[in-house]
Design brief:
mainly alpha, elongated, 3 helices
């Protein structure tokens, strides 16, 4: 399969990980939230990069994207 923009596959995981670490370091995300976000990140990354089928790979990418969007919304809505 020819990918026109191969770096786009790494965009959602990079944003998710960066936002999780940023929110944890500033204290906006407590230990339970960090654990949940990291568990979600690891499960989604495994599905995305090691999925045996196209559906599992797409589901992993969708989970990564939802995590990134959720963390961005949480970050922007914090007072």
């Amino acid at each position: 399969m020819l990918l026109i923009f191969p770096f786009l596959v790494w965009l959602a995981p990079a944003v998710s990980l960066a936002l999780t670490l940023m929110q944890w370091s500033t204290g906006d995300l407590r230990a339970r939230g960090v654990g949940l976000a990291l568990a979600w990140f690891l499960i989604a990354a495994y599905c995305q990069f090691f999925g045996g089928s196209a559906i599992l790979t797409a589901a992993g990418l969708a989970l990564q994207t939802l995590l990134a969007i959720g963390l961005i919304v949480r970050w922007r809505l914090e007072p």
